[in-house]
Amino acid sequence: MKTSSSIIVYASLVGAAFGFVIPQARDSSSNSTTYNETQILQLALTLEHLESAFFSGALTAFNDTDFTDDGLPVWARGRFSEIASQEQSHVQLLTSTLGSNAVQACNYSFPYTSPASFAALAQVLSGVGVSAYAGGAQYLTTKQYITNAAAILSTEARHAAWIAGPVNKGNPWSGPYDTPLTVGSAYSLGAQFITSCPSSNQLSVNAFPSLTLSNTTLGQPSSVTAGNNVTVEGQYVAFFSGLNTTFVQVSNGQVVIPSDSMGTSYAVLTNSNGTATDDTITAGVAVLQFPYGSGGDLETNGRMEMAEAMM
Ligand SMILES: *[C@@H]1O[C@H](CO)[C@@H](O)[C@H](O)[C@H]1NC(C)=O
Ligand SMILES: *[C@@H]1O[C@H](CO)[C@@H](O)[C@H](O)[C@H]1NC(C)=O
Ligand SMILES: *[C@@H]1O[C@H](CO)[C@@H](O)[C@H](O)[C@H]1NC(C)=O
Ligand SMILES: *[C@@H]1O[C@H](CO)[C@@H](O)[C@H](O)[C@H]1NC(C)=O
Ligand SMILES: *[C@@H]1O[C@H](CO)[C@@H](O)[C@H](O)[C@H]1NC(C)=O
Ligand SMILES: *[C@@H]1O[C@H](CO)[C@@H](O)[C@H](O)[C@H]1NC(C)=O
Ligand SMILES: *[C@@H]1O[C@H](CO)[C@@H](O)[C@H](O)[C@H]1NC(C)=O
Which atom of ligand 7 is nearest to the CA of 273? Predict the structure, then answer.
């Protein structure tokens, strides 16, 4: 990422309108949301279809000259082309794994307007892929599928690191652990780019209403707003960072950003102090970046982002 301290607003849309949802099953013993293996593989395939369309679409939209004119290295487009073909390979593997349960590709609308804004969004989406596999892993039961998912996850992480570092000139990683996302959170981050899906994609859960934080200065108050008229007052913003989750109650419409936040974090609104799961999350997901230097020095200003194209 560029090192400017500007705040990039991640304007998440509401997925509920898309008519494409993740199946959700209730675990009667604990009343907490759980997922079976097929549902997790369907989420993975949904996100792989999206990534595949995202990368291949940008390659169609922008040629080598467009890339270099926009300040990206000349070799970047060739590598993005490799990523596109690797995402397509993930689609094929998961499609074959799911057989008759495979979901089909949807129509998408991505907000990038230039190679640089595409690269900024590519960094976020690759990170979401990593977080989706990390969060979904606990629901996989078949040994071969766990192995396949691990092999895909590390490949997605390598894409994310390459895009964040050499291409976008920012932090190639966050902390010692990538951040797992709940299934609903991972879906919500992808769903905002889905405009319509085949009716045969019979799945069942909605994306969360959007969540926006106004200001991501470390240790400072940030105004919290949610979509769908969700009332934020008194609820908690859960900051996901690595394996840690920090809860901050919304007071006067604001939360103070945890001052030790570093690298990529995600924020969701939850009605529970201490639990942020798909049963308790009421809005999300905000993507937050807290850049730091090679000596570990934090920049004072974080950023909230999805796409520079949205500015
Ligand atoms: C997984 O859950 C879906 C939706 O509830 C259900 O249709 C499917 O039969 C379940 N699959 C397995 C293998 O339990
Ligand atoms: C690249 O695309 C631009 C428009 O985005 C066009 O003006 C230019 O001619 C193209 N260059 C080549 C080599 O195709
Ligand atoms: C994608 O959009 C086209 C054009 O609007 C439409 O004909 C097609 O049915 C859509 N496909 C899906 C999978 O929603
Ligand atoms: C963010 O908060 C800091 C500290 O309160 C303030 O100085 C800064 O102006 C705020 N930035 C925006 C964009 O609101
Ligand atoms: C939000 O509340 C207003 C006023 O009650 C209502 O008109 C609007 O439809 C609501 N919007 C949503 C998305 O629920
Ligand atoms: C979690 O938070 C603790 C205390 O702030 C910190 O020492 C640790 O590095 C954090 N771990 C991760 C994985 O972020
Ligand atoms: C939320 O939980 C934390 C840790 O258990 C506790 O310190 C804090 O007082 C709780 N906040 C509220 C508003 O109950």
Answer: 1
